[in-house]
């Protein structure tokens, strides 16, 4: 694979941007509150206004767009059978780390073990 630095660079860009996007959109939804409760008390229009009016959400969406375009670059250099599982598994691990450290979520042993096993599987595919 002659493009491996580009491939892995773009996969890492997918992981970083996707993780930032996921973390920020999660934070935005936590800031907005329970949308079911918001809907029941204020109606659909107000719920949409609160969610879409959150700047953090739009920054997260921007990062997700960057991740998408990095994915396109990665797919131009390598097979989907490598790019998709590698980016997904590394994003899975990075999301667990961000969830635990920045969003103060409970990430149990089972999730850590699943992340490690998925990453190990990708390492086998990448060889």
Write the layout of secondary structure elements.
Blueprint (H helix, E strand, L loop, with lengths): L3 H29 L2 H18 L2 H23 L2 H22 L7 H18 L1
Helix pairs in contact: 1-3, 1-4, 4-5
Write a concise keyword list for the protein shown above.
127 residues, mainly alpha, 5 helices, 87% helix, 0% strand
Structure, described:
With 127 residues, the protein is an all-alpha fold. It has one domain. It has 5 helices and no strands. Helix 1 packs antiparallel against helix 3, helix 1 crosses helix 4 and helix 4 runs antiparallel to helix 5. It starts with a helix and ends with a helix.
Provide a quick synopsis of the model.
The chain has 127 residues and is an all-alpha fold.
């Amino acid at each position: 694979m002659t493009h491996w630095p580009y491939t892995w660079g773009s996969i890492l860009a997918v992981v970083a941007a996707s993780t930032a996007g996921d973390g920020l959109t999660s934070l935005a939804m936590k800031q907005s509150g329970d949308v079911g409760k918001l809907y029941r008390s204020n109606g659909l229009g107000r719920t949409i206004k609160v969610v879409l009016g959150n700047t953090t959400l739009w920054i997260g969406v921007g990062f997700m767009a960057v991740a998408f375009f990095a994915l396109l670059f990665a797919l131009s250099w390598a097979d989907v059978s490598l790019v998709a599982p590698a980016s997904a598994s590394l994003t899975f691990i990075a999301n667990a780390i961000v969830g635990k450290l920045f969003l103060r979520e409970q990430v149990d042993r089972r999730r850590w073990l699943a992340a490690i096993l998925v990453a190990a599987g990708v390492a086998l595919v990448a060889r």
